[in-house]
Design goal:
Length: about 400
């Protein structure tokens, strides 16, 4: 008797239900079970290629660009699967300036089908203008992709935006990304429909953040922020708070998710305020609280009291629309010496104040808390629950988010 078999069109969609980021092993195993699964699995396995080294380039025999070139020379048909590309170069000495095979490898890609490009470099990298000219050109060409929707640049010139096409929707810039280099020739975006309308943006302030904001707000660069639905600010100096507000002024009516980490250099809970008035579409707020900053002299204030004051200033017509509030809190090991008696500290009192305030938010469904603390996690959680004082009768759910998990906003 023949055993029943599933139709081929059902079998071939099985790989579509495997999470390629969390369960890569299953995709690789399925790929080897039958030729039937080879193409569907390769579609997922090769859709995102990461070029990086896990150790110093001096300790590897083959640099990332050479590995990719060898792969595409031996199996050119695999090129059609590559839709997302990450180039990561964090070690010193760097591999990007010395990988002579990289430009040729990138030239083998179908640039027009690249939807996501991430260029992330370590602190104080080789200046862009000192990279080999053909390496510069190949990276610029990736940014020209007519399909590019998501661009990440860490420690690379933000002028790469000059060549991006109107399809771009997500922008992530970090650290030294706010350099403006005139030798990256802008793409002509003068006609109707040629402007870039961003829907998501993440800005990590550190150096020259003011230059980055100036670039984004310059109408001549044809980058529109009035359609932004999600914005993430990770602030450096206190002055970045004001710059963040100038960005907010461009997207208050469209913003749905606001993510913010205040500067660790704030001097008081009232220092450098950020105003959410007018953000009538806002539904989710995620706040990062970095309490790990070494501050023995108490010269600077703790961010958590600032967060408490920030929450208190959210206008009623905004806070009563919020569905999700997330607090991501980082403590240093010595910050919580005796949790049992640690109830008059300003951190505890700030959490208590936050707990009392959100109880009045009419639409709140979820208060999520993620704690980054290296020890005694159960005791820390008990202390936080006690500080927030959220009873079981609350109209919203208190959620403990495991450290390094994905945000409940997703």
């Amino acid at each position: 008797m023949m055993e029943p078999r599933l139709p081929l069109d059902i079998l071939t969609i099985i790989p579509d239900y495997i999470n390629e980021e969390k369960d890569l092993g299953s995709l690789k195993a399925l790929c080897l079970t039958s030729s039937l699964f080879l193409q569907p699995c390769q579609t997922h396995l090769l859709s995102h290629i990461t070029l990086s080294t896990e150790v110093s380039p001096s300790q590897v025999q083959t640099l990332p660009g050479e590995r990719l070139l060898n792969l595409l020379e031996n199996s050119p048909r695999l090129t059609k699967y590559i839709k997302r590309l990450t180039i990561s170069d964090y070690f010193h000495p760097e591999w990007l300036p010395i990988d002579t095979a990289l430009p040729e490898a990138l030239s083998r890609l179908y640039t027009s089908q690249i939807v996501s490009f991430r260029l992330t470099r370590g602190a104080q990298p080789t200046p862009w203008e000192e990279l080999p000219p053909d390496t510069q050109s190949s990276l610029i060409q990736l940014c020209r992709s007519t399909s590019l929707e998501d661009l990440t640049i860490h420690n690379a010139p933000m002028t790469l935006l000059n060549v991006c096409r109107p399809n771009l929707r997500e922008l992530n810039m970090c650290l030294g990304s706010f350099d403006v280099l005139p030798d990256i020739t802008p793409e002509a975006r003068d006609g109707v429909g040629q402007e870039i309308f961003l829907t998501g943006m993440r800005l990590y302030g550190e150096h020259n953040f003011d230059k980055g904001v100036e670039y984004l707000l310059n109408d001549a660069n044809k980058i529109r922020l009035d359609k932004l639905q999600q914005i993430q600010f990770f602030m450096g100096p206190r002055s970045d708070h004001l710059l963040a507000t100038t960005i907010l002024d461009r997207c208050r009516s469209s913003l749905r998710t606001f993510v913010f980490r205040p500067s660790v250099f704030i001097t008081s809970p009232d220092d450098s305020p950020v105003d959410l008035s007018g953000c009538t579409s806002l539904r989710s707020i995620e706040l990062y609280v970095d309490e790990t900053f070494s501050n023995p002299s108490e010269e600077f204030g703790h961010p958590l009291p600032w967060i408490s004051t920030f929450i208190s200033t959210i206008p009623p017509d905004i806070k009563n629309r919020i569905v999700t509030l997330v607090l991501c809190i980082s403590f240093k090991p010595a910050e919580l010496p005796d949790l049992d008696t640690f109830k008059e500290n300003k951190l505890y009192l700030s959490l208590r104040r936050i707990g009392e305030m959100v109880k009045t938010w009419g639409s709140l469904e979820k208060l999520g808390v993620e704690v980054q603390y290296p020890r005694d996690s159960e005791r820390v959680w008990a202390w936080i629950r006690d500080a927030l004082n959220i009873s079981s009768e609350a109209t919203f759910e208190l959620v403990e988010i495991p450290y390094e998990s994905t945000s409940v906003l997703s």
